[in-house]
Known about the structure:
Helix content is 26%, strand content 25%. The protein has helices at residues 8-29, 47-63, 93-98, 174-180, 195-201, 216-228; strands spanning 36-38, 44-46, 69-71, 83-91, 104-111, 114-122, 127-131, 135-139, 151-152, 163-167, 185-190, 207-210, 232-234, 255-258. The model has no long low-confidence stretch (mean pLDDT 90). A seven-stranded mixed beta sheet has the order 3-4-5-6-7-8-9. It has a three-stranded antiparallel beta sheet with strand order 12-14-13, with helices on both faces. Strand 10, helix 4 and strand 11 (185-190) form a beta-alpha-beta unit. By secondary structure, it is α+β, with helices and mostly antiparallel strands.
Amino acid sequence: MRLDVSQPDEIALRLAPIAAEAAHLLRGMENALIEKRIKPDGSPTTAADLAAEEMIIRRLHEAWPHVPVVAEETASTAHADDVFFLVDPLDGTGDFIRGTGEYSVNIAMIRKNRPLAAAVAAPAMGAIWIAGTKARTSAMPEEDHATFDWRDIRVRRAPEDGLVALVSRRHGDIATEACLSTLSIGTRRMTSSALKFCLIASGEADIYVRCGATMEWDTAAGDHVLCCAGGSVVGPGGAPLTYGHEERGYLNGPFAALGDVSLAPKLDLPTAVA
Length: 274
């Protein structure tokens, strides 16, 4: 398939069945006896991560053979280019192992340091989100290559008080709590993986702050879905996140994902990862 960067919505539609296929693969492995190993950075990985990543890379190369793929498990074997893919085949491996269902498949095409098109699939939730120039969601087809039923999604305006903040189950930190303390938070909802970006994009929550370490493949797809739904993802000083930083091992700095961009000036993100 010829890459036409002027058609990001078409690219997003092409990413959807790839993400869905990976989602079905992971769903089928949920109840299997999965052995895990701990990577050098302390995070877990399983045979499911590796199987989904291999399948996604194969499908992306079939569709766009000359576009590099930087994926979580094999990040050292590919290099970012002017256009490249960021892939997290199983975002939320710990939740996958524990059976909470709060994990996702993340695929983003990056062009000139920002996402151009993206897909996020949530196998256990039976939902998928895509974004090119607009953000859309669909129920997950029950069979690979079945028809999607897309509908547009949009963020909501932040309420005067009682904001809904999405927080990670195991990644709380003092810096994140300090940022949230400047806002009128009514509810803290625990949610894992890139689903947080998609829930804000769908108008179900308002803010997600992360001052601890994340990787670019954790955030790129969700970042694009949220931004195309009218929200924003900002780092210190309100600048958008940029991608392709191989020189720092694809590590993100602190960021806030916002449904209502008017919340950004009220935040004081630290300049370094907490």
